Amino acid sequence: MDANYFANLIASAPLQTSSRYFEAGVYAVKIDAAKIFLNRQRRPRAAVDCTVINSNNASFPTTSQVSWIVSLDSDSGPSTLKGFITDITGCTDAEASNIDVINAFFPNTEANPAAAPSRAVGLQAIVNAFEKPTKSGGVYTKCTWRHFDPAKDEMPDFSKMAPAAVAEAPAAATQTDNSWSGSSNHGGNWGGQQVPSNGNMPF
């Protein structure tokens, strides 16, 4: 056996994450990563991984990891991602329609492992997540995203917020805006709240 056999196994293995999905609540988050990937069924997905700065959901204290996913093969998936870019940057629809801008925010790391990290990395946002039970017994989660500038914007007072009310549903059946998510590494929500354009793109 080659002396580096086990080291090569580790080196070639994909990095696994254990991030949870957004549940009902208000979150202040810092974006750690954003990318395009194929799930286990080889279906295209976009993922945004975040670190929680604060929230009114007791299950997600400061430094918790939380993820958001969009199904690119759904009817609303592409427009959802464009909405996320405009919401998190304040750019216009036309700017968010530029292929270079899209690739800068959501690099296809499977097609190009050497792609530069997403330009969204390091940005902060306020995320409002809403849950409601579905007829099939799952939970439907929808999120709105708003860019947060710690140098200019006032942080919400989480200590005065009511605790988040989380809908009850079977643990293995959580429905998001664009896909079903059970035991996969990413959950899905929607980015939709418009941020006024200020022309200042973070790239």
What does this protein look like?
There is one protein chain. This protein is of the alpha+beta class and 203 residues long. The protein has one domain (16-153, 164-181). Helix content is 16%, strand content 30%. The chain has helices at residues 5-12, 77-89, 93-96, 99-105; strands at residues 20-21, 25-38, 44-55, 65-71, 124-133, 139-148, 174-176, 180-181. The protein has an 8-stranded mixed β-sheet. The longest helix has 13 residues, at 77-89. The relative contact order is 0.23. The model is unreliable at 172-203 (pLDDT under 50).
Write the layout of secondary structure elements.
Blueprint: H1 5-12, E1 20-21, E2 25-38, E3 44-55, E4 65-71, H2 77-89, H3 93-96, H4 99-105, E5 124-133, E6 139-148, E7 174-176, E8 180-181
Parallel strand pairs: 1-4, 6-7
Antiparallel strand pairs: 2-3, 2-5, 3-4, 5-6, 7-8
Summary, kept brief:
The protein is built from 4 helices and 8 strands. The protein is of the alpha+beta class. The protein starts with a helix and ends in a 22-residue tail after the last strand.
Q: Average pLDDT, to the nearest integer?
A: 80
Helix content, binned percent: 10-25%
How many distinct folded domains? 1
The largest sheet is: 8 strands, mixed
What's the gyration radius in Å?
A: 18 Å
* Broad shape: globular
What is the number of helices? 4
Number of strands: 8
With strands numbered from the N-terminus, the spatial order across the biggest sheet is 1-4-3-2-5-6-7-8
Give the helix/strand class.
alpha+beta
Low-confidence stretches: 172-203
Distance between the terminal alpha carbons, to the nearest Å? 48 Å
> What is the chain-wise order of helices and strands?
HEEEEHHHEEEE
% residues in beta strands: 25-35%
